[in-house]
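The protein record quoted in full:
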Amino acid sequence: MADLIATSNQRDLTLVKPKTGFIYLLVSWLIVFPVFRIFFRGRIHGQSNVPLKGPLVVVANHGSHLDPPILGHALGRPVAFMAKEELFRIPFLSWIIRSCGAYPVRRGSSDREAFRIANNKLLSGWATGVFLDGTRQADGRINQPMAGAALLAARSGSYLLPVAIINSHRVLKKKGFFPRFLPIHLRVGTPIPPPNSRKKVDLRESTDKLQFAINSMIDEGLLE
């Protein structure tokens, strides 16, 4: 699938690798992977669909706070996510989440600033993660998709990778504090080309494709 990215109208970024560092690897192998695989019996279907190089926007549903670390460390390549600026004021936590690719976005900041930061991550070899609804959904589905992922892909020439996170909304409910140790599975779809333009109609078409792909994978249920 990495060959798909080479068709981007930007300069060839297929050889650019993100600089993850020791802390990223430590968090992945000592925290995220054991928790995902053991406590939540984590499984992934379609991992071969993940392009390992080049700019990529990973698009998923959002059911709980567990989603960013799982997506950021379980797909075989690092995925960076936006995070509230307040989290970066906590010294030790700030160091960890920066090392894991997170980048701060101020509340009320312009979309232009957020897109600039996300695009820089793409140019440095990271995949960038976007939750299509923009916020957690109690039923774990895509209900009110926004066009941000499609716009980012249109601006950067990145492919869009639909990923369904199944069951995380049941494991950690929106107003809950303690997780239930139920299985969390990921289904990875086929990469979708970037929109033909930044026009609203093209962004809407790509967003609808993402919603359909993700919800269809959710409907397939947990892996057998």
Remarks:
- Residues 28 and 73 are 6 Å apart (CA to CA).
- Helices lie at 2-5, 21-39, 67-74, 91-99, 111-123, 148-156, 168-171, 200-219.
- Residues 1-11 have pLDDT under 50 and may be disordered.
- Strands lie at 43-45, 56-60, 79-80, 82-84, 103-105, 127-131, 159-166, 185-188.
